[in-house]
């Protein structure tokens, strides 16, 4: 059984450098996952990135969260890793539950 | 590029930053706490500073200018800000840099005269406006007062009383910034205690969107004579475009300023700006005469002067009993 994490602290991961993404997560007063994406490739990959971010957040069982991303053309796994790291920091956890990732 | 942090205590390194800023024709903001500097071969090529919630003195040497350098610098600067627990950040800049900062996650809020823009990285202003909308009261006359109350005097109380009697509802905002003699909490407590008997009044904690003269940066404004008017224009644009509409404010009440030239000019500019033709509804400025005691206008600075000289019998004639009690209690605490 996985418990839903709703008690998170603001946190971030990544940089604004080219091929990276700067990810911020903060508590949200609404249930669910709110994603705000700004990407240099939003027109082509925006939907795909949002879907992958959503999947990552859901896999880590985090709710009531706002994820803000400045994407500088990062590859899919980079964005995922940045989101995971930001969420781990937000939860105050140092090791992810590898089985869920 | 190698990045490092410069704390306020490091005088020598701050002097180097000052020299670098001068080389790109910027002044150093003395209120910056931590600077982030980028060096190349021991030479400063970029810097940016954190002052409360405001990013200041962001500068990049021409030799390395380009989006890459700006993004690296901002990454470092944001890291420092977030580590300090400051997640809702603001910056003032020239309109030509709007795009650069947008690519760092900042969003445009408001501008003044095509010379200064205010940006924030959270867009909390939308959430704030939504909260204000819930506090809206309908009526033909909806008044607003923005008050520092440093401390709350009989003059302030008169202003609130007049506003309440002339309006269907009044929204009273307490300036939040801690740049006054009395802390925000104490000023808020004094006002709260002093206006308890008014039934058509909402007391608001001020927000970051009532920008203070103290945080408004001046380092990139070349013409120092324009600082006051740019600040005022920006402050009033935010008020008229963002804060007044959700509350349906129709009138703003201020005290007349016979003594202070700067505030008097502010009031005059406010009168014009709040009513000038625009897509937003006009707001009428109501200037109320100051009430006097012993032939002298009652003002917060007069009370502070009397406090310094321990003239408590005079203070008792200048402030409501509720303020007097709080002042006396604070004095006891100090002693």
Which terms summarize this structure?
heterodimer; A: 101 residues; alpha+beta; Ribosomal Protein S5, domain 2; 4-stranded mixed sheet; 2 helices; globular; B: 335 residues; alpha/beta; Aminopeptidase; Rossmann fold; 7-stranded mixed sheet; 5-stranded parallel sheet; 22% strand
Gist?
The complex is a heterodimer of chains A (101) and B (335). Chain A is of the alpha+beta class and 101 residues long.
> Secondary-structure element sequence of chain B?
EHEEEHEHEEHEHEHEHEHEEEHHH
Largest sheet of chain B: 7 strands, mixed
Question: In which range does the helix fraction of chain A lie?
Answer: 25-40%
Mean pLDDT of chain A: 91
Q: Unreliable runs of chain A, pLDDT <50, ≥5 residues?
A: none
The CATH topology of the largest domain in chain B:
Rossmann fold
Q: What is the CATH architecture descriptor of chain A?
A: 2-Layer Sandwich
Shape of chain A: globular
- Gyration radius of chain A (Cα, Å) is 13 Å
| Topology-level CATH name of chain A | Ribosomal Protein S5, domain 2
Number of domain units of chain A: 1
**Going across the major beta sheet of chain A, what is the strand order?**
1-2-4-3
Oligomeric composition of the shown chains: heterodimer
Q: What structural category characterises the helix and strand content of chain B?
A: alpha/beta
Per CATH, the class of chain A reads Alpha Beta
Run of helices and strands of chain A: EEEHEH
Distance between the termini of chain B: 53 Å
CATH architecture of the largest domain in chain B: 3-Layer(aba) Sandwich
């Amino acid at each position: 059984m996985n418990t839903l994490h709703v008690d998170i602290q603001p946190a971030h991961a990544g940089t604004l450098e080219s091929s990276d993404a700067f990810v911020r997560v903060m508590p949200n007063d609404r249930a669910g996952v709110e994603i705000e994406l700004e990407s240099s490739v939003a027109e082509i990959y925006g939907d795909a990135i949002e879907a992958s971010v959503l999947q990552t957040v859901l896999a880590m069982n985090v709710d009531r969260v706002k994820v803000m991303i400045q994407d500088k053309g990062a590859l899919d796994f980079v964005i995922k890793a940045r989101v995971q790291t930001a969420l781990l920091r937000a939860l105050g956890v140092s090791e992810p539950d590898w089985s869920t990732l | 590029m190698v990045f490092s942090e410069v704390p306020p205590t490091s005088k020598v390194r701050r002097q180097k930053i000052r020299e670098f800023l001068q080389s790109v024709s910027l002044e150093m903001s003395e209120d910056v706490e931590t600077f982030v500097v980028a060096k190349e071969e021991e030479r400063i090529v970029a810097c940016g500073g954190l002052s409360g919630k405001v990013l200041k003195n962001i500068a990049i040497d021409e030799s390395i200018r380009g989006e890459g350098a700006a993004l690296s610098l901002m990454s470092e600067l944001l890291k420092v800000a977030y580590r300090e627990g400051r997640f809702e950040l603001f910056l003032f800049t020239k309109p030509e840099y709007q795009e650069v900062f947008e690519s760092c996650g900042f969003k445009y809020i408001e501008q003044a005269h095509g010379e200064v823009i205010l940006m924030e990285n959270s867009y909390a202003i939308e959430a704030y406006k939504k909260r204000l909308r819930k506090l809206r009261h309908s009526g033909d006359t909806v008044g607003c007062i923005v008050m520092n109350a440093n401390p709350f005097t009989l003059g302030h109380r008169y202003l609130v009383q007049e506003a309440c009697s002339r309006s269907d509802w009044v929204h009273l905002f307490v300036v939040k910034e801690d740049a006054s003699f009395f802390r925000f909490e104490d000023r808020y407590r004094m006002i709260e205690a002093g206006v308890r008997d008014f039934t058509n009044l909402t007391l608001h904690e001020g927000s970051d969107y009532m920008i203070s003269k103290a945080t408004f940066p001046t380092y990139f404004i070349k013409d120092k004579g324009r600082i006051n008017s740019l600040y005022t224009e920006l402050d009033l644009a935010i008020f008229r475009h963002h804060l007044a509409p959700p509350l349906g404010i129709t009138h703003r009440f201020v005290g007349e300023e016979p003594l202070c030239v700067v505030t008097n000019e502010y009031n005059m500019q406010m009168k014009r700006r709040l009513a000038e033709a625009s897509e937003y509804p006009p707001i009428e400025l109501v200037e109320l005469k100051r009430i006097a005691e012993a032939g002298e206008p009652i003002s917060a600075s007069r009370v502070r002067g009397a406090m310094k000289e321990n003239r408590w019998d005079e203070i008792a004639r200048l402030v409501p009993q509720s303020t007097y009690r709080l002042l006396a209690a604070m004095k006891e605490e100090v002693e």
